[in-house]
Amino acid sequence: MTAALVDFDDVIERFDPMLGLEVHVELNTNTKMFCGCPTGFGAEPNTQVCPTCLGLPGSLPVVNRTAVESAIRIGLALNCSIAPWGRFARKNYFYPDQPKNFQTSQYDEPIAVDGHLDVTLDDGSVFRVEIERAHMEEDTGKSLHVGGATGRIHGAEYSLLDYNRAGIPLIEIVTKMIPGTRERAPEVARAYVTALRDLITALGVSDARMDQGSIRADVNLSLSPRDSGILGTRSETKNVNSLRSVERAVRYEMSRHAAVLDAGEEVVQETRHFQEDTASTRSGRIKETSEDYRYFPEPDLVPIAPSAEWVEELRATLPELPWARRARLQADWSLSDEELRDLVNAGALDLIEATVAAGAPAGDARSWWVAYLTQKANAREVALDALPITPAQVARVIELVASGELNNKLARQVVDGVLDGEGTPDEVVSSRGLAVVSDDGPLIAAVDEALAAQPDVAQKIRDGKVQAAGAIVGAVMKATKGQADAKRVRELIVERCS
Hints:
Blueprint: H1 8-14, E1 15-26, H2 65-77, E2 81-82, E3 89-92, E4 102-105, E5 112-120, E6 126-138, E7 142-146, E8 158-162, E9 169-175, H3 185-203, E10 215-225, E11 235-240, H4 243-262, E12 270-275, E13 280-286, E14 296-297, H5 308-315, H6 322-332, H7 337-345, H8 349-357, H9 362-380, H10 391-402, H11 408-419, H12 425-432, H13 440-453, H14 455-462, H15 469-479, H16 486-496
């Protein structure tokens, strides 16, 4: 067995990578693909099942219309052609989590074919990924292996099966081979899955939660000698469930394939499992060919034949797609390419847009989310959108600052209070007594006290050196714990020294 990996730069020097990505998207329909069972995540095991999704004798499937509509909308958004007629097929194989011993899928008659997705890379350049097909199928159940160190079946004492997931609608989106990526292959893979996830989210057909398995990527990779044009043997790393892991899986497999080839061995066509803790892969099973699955047309389902009118109706429901929306926001907010990319990478774009929609100026909304709230998210080691503050609450804080009821220092204290669960911004202002003090009475007293404490500074102001008032303003702000209206304080200082 080949142990050492080849340095990535060395791989690029001598080999060309060939990528292929298969992404499974779990649709957010209320019921399963071929029966009326609910699809809610996290239910008690085996409580969302029926004779149809368990494959019991005598049960018959019925296609979920909403799932078909979602599939067509995904195909249209990916610039695919929608097939006017197609059948489901039985993909025959036995796994314990597949109760029917076959998966109802689409084989040679997918719902959508020949599309593309343009993805933006880290430097702002655009890379086109060609789409081979998008087809409908059903998900499997879930196995839980108990007693082992890794959660895998190897070493487990026993396994549990949950069929709640069996039959949930899936769309599998398959790219054509992706040539020409070279050293950017890991980045292209991550960018593609990111763009696809954003597209799915915009369409509203899935919650697109990779951490819950709503989107899972299979990474196909092979190497060929540099500029040879010869296709190598591919491996398929299954069910990679984070964007970072997609990138790391590609990088690891490139180095592993090169090590195998350098050792004079043959790359095995197999499935592999990604190891999150080591960013490596390990062997799964020998990869079957399509002939091994003995596909045949599903006899219990009628063909899918979407009319041209129906397809056009669905096309009209497509929302503003993510890349068009970003271009619009970039223009509206006067952002450079780099600034826009930073907002996207920080996960701040949606939050800023929602804050603007709640009434805040774009510049203020951007400043709060990118600066102060990003610091808070980093300190808590959570994503920006996981902070316990809403865009509407941020907009309210901005409004309080604009009206003069808060200054920036007090506003940060208000945000801290919201993040600590003390209530809404107004409730935090009230409970902490954080409103700006602008009444002349207490401010005049504080100004007089500060002038008396610094007579030399007071004399400078009286002599016309107004810039010296800054020291007095600072003293008043300190005395009022930052709650004084600084503008009014300065005005009072000048008045008192005139």
